[in-house]
Structures are given as structure tokens and as C-alpha cells.
Amino acid sequence: AQEMMNNGEIEPAIIAMPSDGLWGDGSAYFPHHNKDFAKWIVEDVPLAIQENIPEAGKKSKLCIGGLSMGGYGALRLGAMHPDKFRAISAHSAITKLEEIELFVEEPLNDYLESASQPNVLDVIADNKTTLPPLRFDCGKSDQLIAGNRDLDAQLTELRIPHEYFEFSGGHQWEYWQEHIRKTYLFFNASIAHK
Fold this sequence. Notes:
The mean pLDDT is about 85. The protein has helices at about 1-5, 35-50, 70-80, 110, 120-125, 145-155, 175-190, and strands at about 30, 35, 60-65, 85-90, 135-140, 165. Helices cover about 40% and strands about 15% of the residues.
């Protein structure tokens, strides 16, 4: 991102990369054990940025992105809070809560107990009239490719505007490091148009 800012490819930006709350192998951004992990991302992190970085005013234009479980969180929380986020981007995203079993040791029921609208499609469809610009991508060798393809097909069928891409690669850092630039460009273009 710094290289892209230095080269003038994107406008100056503050990028926060918080964890999902450090509950077990991942919170999936639901309330667990008296902690609200969605609030942590949607309210607490932006507030911490405003309080600690003077250049980040209260009217900063926020976007949300993530990879894997973070992609799931970005898709859900971005769609749930269109008043807060100007754009949504996800890489290699979990698209159905059941897919979380591929990555965590906690039982699925620990998530389902507190999950309201665990399916990304339901949240996006419920907010389709206010949805900010949305993009997502997945590697062709990723174990989550089927879910990402399904989400793309369902969004297309519902005529919900979005961008979806597939690239070579799997569920690995090399893939994300290569394609995160696309998220920065997408966010930059989305903010410039609003």
C-alpha cells in the first residue's frame, strides 16, 4: 500500500489490520462469551484510529476488506453496515458459516448459537438497495472456490451488482499478497466516486 501511495496509484490511506478478537481459532465476528466481535471491528477499531491518528477525522471514508474468515467478516459486516463502509472487498472468503469447520477446532454449534444470518448471501440480499460497491476473488485451487462461485452465481441471479474474479493459486499468503493490490485500487476508485 505504501508503494502504491508513493507511486500515486492510490490516494493516501490509513490501513488498520485488526485481529477478529482472538476468540479460539477465530470469532467469525459474532458475539461469544460476553464479547461482541462485530462491534469491535465496526465501531471500536475506527474509533481507535480516530483517537490515535489526528489525520483520521470523524468523517473518514471507511472501507472493509479481509481474507478467509476475514473475508467472511468483511462481506457480512460491510453489507450489514452500508452507512459505515464505502466499499467491501474479500479474498478467499468463507461464504457460508459451515465452511469455517475447515479452519477451526471449535465446534460449529459454538458459532451457530450466536450467529444471526450466518449466510453471507442472506445479509447481502437483505441490504441490496443500500449495498456499497462489492468485489471478491478466490484462487482456483482454493478449498473455498465452490462457495465463492456459488455466491457469485446467486448474486448474479438476484441482480445484485458485484465484481467477482478467479485467479491462479490457493488458500495461501502468496495469493493474498499478490491480489491485495486489487483491493486497494477498488477502494480508491470507490471512494473517489462518492
